[in-house]
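Complex record, two chains
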Amino acid sequence: MIINEMKLEIKSKSNNEAFARVVVAAFASQLDPTIEQIADIKTAVSEAITNCIIHAYDMKEGNIELKCQLTEDSIYIDIIDYGKGIENIEMAKQTLYTSKPDADRSGMGFTIMESFMDKLTVESIVGMGTKIHMEKVIKEAK
Amino acid sequence: MICEFQKDTKEMYVKFEGEIDHHTCQIMKNELDYEIHRNTPNKLVFDFKNVKFMDSSGIGLLIGRYKSLLRIGADAEIINANKEVKRILDMAGIFKIMLIKEEIA
C-alpha cells in the first residue's frame, strides 16, 4: 500500500543533480533509513539524473520528471525523460559500456543503480524518451 | 578542490571537497588538467578526506586523469577514501591502477 507520494519536475541542468538526490533522500527519510541506505539512494538517483542530462538530452534543455512513492517498507522511484531514448538497453546496462568514452564517463551508471537498489527496470522508446524505475526495501518485513 | 605541488619531490596533492558528481566534475576536470600540464608531477595523490558524496562521475574523472598521468610517467595514489567512496571505486576496479592508502592526516 502506498502511504506517501511526491512528484517533481526539473530542467535537465547539471546543478539539479545534487538537488534531485537530496530531495529523494529527504523524502525517503520518512522510513527512517540507515546512513548507508541513504547513500545508496542518493547515488542511484544521481546516476539516473546524470544519464538524462548527458545522454537523453545531450546537454541540451529538457524536462525530467521524478516520482517517488513510499510503502510501509520501501521506496519506489521513477525518473522519466522525453529525450532521445536508448537504442539497445542491454548494451547500455553493461558495466563499463559508455556511448561517450571521450567525455570521461565510466560506464558504471546502470551497474551502480542495479547494485545499490533492489530493483531496476528500464523502458525506452527511441525518439520518445526513457523511464527508469527503481525500488529499494528500507525496512525488513516484520 | 585544492591543488598543491611540492617542487622538491614533484608530488602533486589534490584535495577534493564536498560532492563529486557530473556537475562538479566538469569544473574540476579543467583545473586538474591545467595543473597536471603545468606541473608535470611524478606522483599525484588524490585526497578524498573531505568528500561527502561521489557518484560514477568521480570514476570517470580519475580514469581520465590517469590517462594523462600515464603519458608523463606519473604514479597515482588515493588516500582517505571513506566506505561509500571506496565501494564505488572498487566496483570500477580503480585499485588495480592506483595505490590506495589509509588514514593520512
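Note: Helices of chain B lie at 22-39, 56-71, 83-91.
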